[in-house]
Amino acid sequence: MSGDLVNLLLTGTKETLYMVFLSSIIAFLLGVPIGVVLVVTDKGGIFPLFKVNKIVGLIINVIRSMPEMILIIILLPLSKLIVGTTLGANAAIVSISIGSAPFIARIIENSLKEVEFGKIEAAEAMGSKPFEIIKKVLLPEALPSIIRGITISIIGIIGFTAIAGAIGAGGLGSLAIRFGYQRFRTDVLIGTVVILIIIVQLIQVIGEAIAKSINRKRFKFE
Amino acid sequence: MIAVKNVSKTFNTLNEKVEVLKDINFEIDQGDIFGIIGFSGAGKSTLIRCLNGLEKPDSGNIIVGENEITKLNRKELRNARKKIGMIFQQFNLFDSRTVYENIAFPLEISGYKKDKIKNRVEEILELVELSEKRDSYPLQLSGGQKQRVGIARALANEPDVLLSDEATSALDPQTTLSILELLKNINKRLNLTIVIITHELDLLRYCTNNMVVLENGHIVESGNTENLFLGPKSNTLKNFINITKGLQENRNFLGGEGI
Q1: Taking a C-beta distance cutoff of 8 angstroms, is the pair A204, A151 a contact?
Q2: Which of A7, A96, A161, B123 is 20 to 30 Å from B65 at the Cα level?
């Protein structure tokens, strides 16, 4: 293995991990509250607001129906506004976070809807405020399912960074296209694929292990 | 203690309007154990849910203690509910919390300090005889133990009323008996008013003083439990008594034990 290959892959991996890490955090900060809003404002939810629910749902569907590549291009002006450039990892993070948040919101919505209505009703019957129900019942009860959702989301975000790599974001995706595809460096192509497989596997295994250990602690065996 | 006056409620389904409660009237005295019996779909669940405002009647008034439940705003209703405990057929315990934490829940949302919560939870754990299970999770418990936790959780805030929504329907007869013993015991010790809804006749006869019989959303009979059993007037109650008798005879005939 030549030295430049190792260097290329190392830099690419670092850039990808940087993008995935920051995008995930921002996307969750945006997506989790939106997912909660979707559930609590729904008809029969703990704080029904029909119009809010419909509007949020519509915005999510609009963003989710756009191909990732197009979404990144549309959000470039926003990246320029926030980080001052349309190139590089930081610009991509803006697009990826905003592009992934609606997906995460739907995943969280799904997890929270799995919580049996009886538990929510019991909390209401005890005089809980809506916020207390969210914090003390909905989120903790759904936690293992949420963790699995987060795992899926992070893996989705990794794919997103690879696409962003095609239009100047850096990272392993950019490496695969610039070297592997355009310069016929098959070794680089294979290297990026192998590293991506390892990263995705690791995240999947870790996520699954955390979800399982929480369930086991609660004696919910699968 | 509890007064239900002219309460009616209609559910709108896709094709039709279903009148689940029609002009319901009754009163429950402080410290009474009061039963509401009816076949499935008679409106029992809706009625008991009106008592703590989980359902809102279309018309009529409901008074629990000093509160007119039907007139409260959201915040007042939340505060009123803290003094109305409720237990459920499916227990509805929080799987993410230990027994201790489940019982602590109503105290947490009432803003009590940690050490006050600890004292109260330990005291109530003793009352329901579950002290050794304090760090278990609900999924580790048997049905009877789960319902004891449900009762403990409902009693933690020292309520004036306990509502029991088919609380023993998922339990075997022996466990049912022990839960009923516990409820009777609590009623005596704390002078707590208990409202029980059920479709099990023996259960009412065993532990209630007064009862109403609900049929298709209205009350067909009400009064002292023992008197009603001795001279049932409504077809619903007669049916209940006959069915229960029939079951007992069948079991005897089959060589099994009577209820």
Answers
A1: yes
A2: B123
